[in-house]
């Protein structure tokens, strides 16, 4: 695995932060928000993603995780294939499962009005990308990586006698606890679905880096939103 230099690490975090800030701005403009609100959201989103992304990448590197496939892969083709295999394809499967289980609840009062009032593919695209960038940066890149780093150091003393246990147990604990926090961030009615989704996205992150978990999160939401809200409006 190729280690990231500080310059590469900060550069990747900056790209992630700029992408998140730009997406948040477009999403707010699409909702006809005021310019002051948009500017503030851009600045706050950039600072939050830059900070958590940078610390998360340091924690991932200290935990021997890939962290970012774009910054650590040997070539662009292998990075692209990794995102497709680890991110897009599992994300589409997750989106179909969400559709099958939750389509009937799409207009529940517990669903955010911004989602219930979705009108077109552009809405679905922006909301999916916005949530994918911010939630994956925080819950997977930062929280999961930090927990893994902490648990690995906690069990370091027994690594010589229990190497397999020290490899598996910190990953399992970090995966479960980060998914629990992800579920708690959603309302009580979405707790179980968010927890299961967090486990899947966490597993994707561990295997394919932050780009793959963002891609999977985006693909799952975009497919679900399009099939649940946009297509019924077009067809009906």
Note the topology:
Elements lengths: L5 H25 L4 H28 L6 H4 L3 H27 L10 H4 L4 H34 L8 H22 L6 H45 L1
Describe this structure in words.
Helix content is 80%, strand content 0%. The chain has eight helices and no strands. It has helices at residues 6-30, 35-62, 69-72, 76-102, 113-116, 121-154, 163-184, 191-235. Helix 1 runs antiparallel to helix 6 and helix 4 crosses helix 8 (191-235). The mean pLDDT is 92.
Any descriptors?
mainly alpha; 8 helices; about 240 residues
Précis, in short:
The chain has helices at 6-30, 35-62, 69-72, 76-102, 113-116, 121-154, 163-184, 191-235. By secondary structure, the chain is mostly helical.
